[in-house]
Amino acid sequence: MQIKEITTNKTDYMDLLLIGDEDEKMVNKYIDYSIIFALYENNILTSLCAVITIDNETIEIKNLATYPEFQNRGYASALINFVCNKYKTNYKYLILGTGENNKILEFYKKRGFQESHRLQNFFINNYEHPIFEEGKQLIDMIYLKKIL
Q1: What would be an example GO MF term here (predicted)?
Q2: Which domains does the chain have, with CATH numbers?
Q3: Could you tell me which residues are beta bridge partners of residue 2?
Q4: Cys-Cys link to 113, which of 5, 87, 88, 108 (CB 3.0-4.6 A)?
């Protein structure tokens, strides 16, 4: 397993970024100022994580995605651990936002995240079309926070 920082041609990874955030306009809002980490297994791209700085104490994962054929193999967890270890000396908190999807919320909670706050109607107000996960329309953005 190898993790590389992507500094150029970030849009080359749009297909994978769109797994984590299906609206290209939304991805384009943060891609240029994100730090993207790509995880490779046997020289094959499996997952990526886009991180931004919020303030002098907080970083945010804007996108965490794994190709479907590589899911449930620990790659997303490895990226979260990598980000935590990389930034823990300079930042206090890692946050991220997600929809109200029980499977995804449990994934993050098992990795030390706790619910912080909600942005009411985020998915309705910021996406051109309804977003569904597990057959349920996403409405609020749920923010999770972890102490580094």
Answers
A1: acyltransferase activity, transferring groups other than amino-acyl groups
A2: 2-147 (3.40.630.30)
A3: 40
A4: 108
**pLDDT tens digits, 4-40:** 999 999 999 999 999 998 889 999 999 999 999 999 9
Secondary element (H or E) of residue 60: strand 58-66
Match 């329309």 to its residue by tokens.
137
Spatial distance between the Cα atoms of 25 and 41, rounded to a whole number of angstroms: 29
| Tokens 């980490």, located at residue | 37
Cα–Cα distance, 4 to 38 (Å, whole number): 5
Strand 58-66 with 93-98, pairing: parallel
Cβ neighbors of 77 (< 8 A, separation 6 or more) are 111
What DSSP state is assigned to residue 74?
A: S
